[in-house]
């Protein structure tokens, strides 16, 4: 075995020493800014974002987050205790109060005993959720674009498009939902999707489909033959701002502010590959392509600076490969390891019999559009931490470590605990599960392979647990998730 749990225990001890040393150093220096206790438990930038968006100082932000973590534990415990009488919960962060709805007055004492404030409710959360589920198949989304269970009002709130209240009210009656369990509001807003822009995923131009090449500043690069300047896209929403074809075959699409360019490529095996840069590979190098028609296929570079003539004209300076592709894959990503190479242009053959495919070099497209390639954080080993009840993120320098969700841990019932870590390419990040016993943290499970990604599963007794994320070597951003019993 490469390492033992003793390393994790030593890290925990080192952490306490470092914190104490930091406090001592600050106390003795008149010019050093005081360190906010607990700030290191949260992802870089979170506290500054809370100050920017919510007007909270770092100290207040830590207090709010600490309160919310404790309230969340109480909320989940009470949901189990109250059973069918549970009517949802909400917090007031200003008062640091947890309110819990109960549809049975006899259960109020249990809420008070847990340190929360009971609110008598007409409908249980289970009833509201069931009625809301009935609306999913009963409502026309164009006439009721948004609806949700609002636990504070103990009702289903339906945002109704102008002129559609009669239709929506009839749908509510037909679904058997009590009229007093529904609150109507009028809206003129039609929601739209918020999309992560990821290489290899599909996007649409009118009745046509192409594939995202690579995320770049404010959007993505793709094939020029997919659209002309001024053409608009959907899923994600965007506009072609640069397009060159024939001669070249590149384009840049500027996406909406609600769409997030991500430095990764879909590997069509349930994960993504992080993009680390755009260093051009040599002839003979192994490369893999991602596209929305045929997914993930690999081959080798046969030539650089190739010219090919399509019916529309000749394109020069392309990468020639023996990787297969089919219509709809156009614009998709070509990678050599984690280095972006180019976007799918065209070729011959298919993915049943094989063929030759040409790619527009990515650096030429980035330069022409005046944008930069977006590189990734997590995703180095292909693991994506989805399907977990809670998530976390952050960044580490080589040799660094941190605790999630905090150094004080979180309560868990008896059962199976699952955890996942998704680190950047080229690093060795590890994940430890620690349990508090008699005031001492001990490692009870671990994922310590040489890969950037780890998963941990542990069956244990009730207690207080925390995750230790450790950079054995390498630096970068990570994401992760965990589920407690």
Q: How would you summarize this macromolecular structure in one to three sentences?
A:
By secondary structure, the chain is α+β, with helices and mostly antiparallel strands.
What structural category arises from helix and sheet content? alpha+beta
Query: What is the C-level CATH assignment of the largest domain?
Result: Mainly Beta
CATH architecture of the largest domain, please?
Answer: Beta Barrel
Radius of gyration: 27 Å
**Structurally, how many domains make up the residues?**
4
The strand line-up of the biggest sheet is 17-18-19-22-21-20
Largest beta sheet, briefly? 6 strands, antiparallel, barrel
Span between termini: 29 Å
Extended strand count: 31
Shape: globular
The name of the CATH superfamily of the largest domain reads: Trypsin-like serine proteases
The number of helical elements comes to: 7
Report helical residue fraction.
10-25%
CATH topology of the largest domain: Thrombin, subunit H
Mean pLDDT: 82
| Percent strand | 35-45%
Low-confidence stretches: 1-33, 377-383
Family: Belongs to the peptidase S1 family.
InterPro entries: Pept_S1_alpha_lytic (IPR004236), Pept_S1A_streptogrisin (IPR001316), Peptidase_S1_PA (IPR009003), Peptidase_S1_PA_chymotrypsin (IPR043504), Streptogrisin_prodomain (IPR035070)
GO molecular function: serine-type endopeptidase activity
GO cellular component, one term: extracellular region
């Amino acid at each position: 075995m490469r390492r033992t749990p003793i390393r994790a225990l030593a890290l925990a001890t080192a952490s306490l020493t470092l914190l104490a040393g930091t406090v001592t150093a600050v106390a003795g220096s008149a010019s050093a800014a005081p360190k906010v206790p607990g700030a290191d438990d949260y992802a870089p930038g979170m506290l500054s974002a809370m100050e920017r968006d919510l007007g909270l100082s770092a100290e207040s932000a830590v207090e709010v987050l600490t309160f919310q973590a404790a309230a969340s534990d109480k909320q989940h415990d009470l949901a189990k205790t109250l059973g069918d009488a549970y009517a949802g919960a909400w917090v007031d962060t200003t008062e640091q109060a947890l309110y819990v709805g109960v549809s049975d007055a006899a259960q109020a004492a249990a809420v008070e005993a847990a340190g929360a404030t009971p609110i008598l409710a007409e409908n249980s959360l289970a009833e509201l959720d069931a009625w809301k589920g009935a609306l999913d198949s009963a409502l026309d989304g164009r006439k009721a674009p948004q609806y949700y269970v609002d636990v504070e009002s103990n009702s289903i709130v339906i945002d109704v498009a102008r002129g559609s209240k009669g239709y929506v009210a009839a749908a509510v009656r037909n679904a058997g939902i009590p009229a007093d369990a529904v609150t109507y509001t009028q809206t003129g807003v039609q929601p739209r999707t918020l999309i992560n822009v990821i290489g290899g995923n599909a996007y649409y131009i009118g009745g046509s489909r192409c594939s995202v090449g690579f995320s770049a500043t404010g959007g993505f690069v793709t094939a020029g033959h997919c659209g002309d300047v001024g053409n608009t896209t959907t899923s994600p929403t965007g506009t072609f701002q640069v397009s060159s074809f024939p001669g070249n075959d590149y384009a840049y699409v500027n996406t909406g502010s609600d769409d997030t360019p991500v430095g990764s490529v879909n590997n069509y095996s349930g994960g993504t590959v992080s993009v680390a840069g755009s260093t051009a590979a040599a002839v003979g190098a192994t490369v893999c392509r991602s596209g929305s028609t045929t997914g993930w296929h690999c081959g080798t570079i046969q030539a650089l600076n190739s010219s090919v003539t399509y019916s529309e004209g000749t394109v020069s300076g392309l990468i020639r490969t023996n990787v297969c592709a089919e219509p709809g894959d156009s614009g998709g990503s070509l990678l050599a390891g984690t280095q972006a190479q180019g976007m799918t242009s065209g070729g011959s053959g298919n993915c049943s019999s094989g063929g030759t495919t040409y790619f527009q070099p990515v650096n030429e497209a980035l330069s022409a559009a005046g944008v930069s390639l977006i590189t990734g954080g997590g995703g180095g080993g292909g693991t994506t931490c989805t399907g977990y009840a809670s998530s976390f993120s952050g960044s580490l320098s080589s040799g660094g470590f941190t605790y999630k969700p905090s150094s004080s841990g979180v309560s868990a019932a008896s059962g199976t605990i699952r955890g996942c870590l998704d680190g950047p390419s080229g690093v060795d990040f590890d994940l430890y599960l620690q349990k508090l016993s008699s005031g001492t943290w001990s490692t009870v499970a671990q994922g310590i392979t040489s890969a950037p990604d780890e998963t941990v599963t542990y069956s244990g007794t009730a207690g207080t647990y925390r995750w230790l994320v450790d950079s054995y070597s390498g630096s970068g951003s990570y994401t992760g998730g965990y589920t407690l019993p």
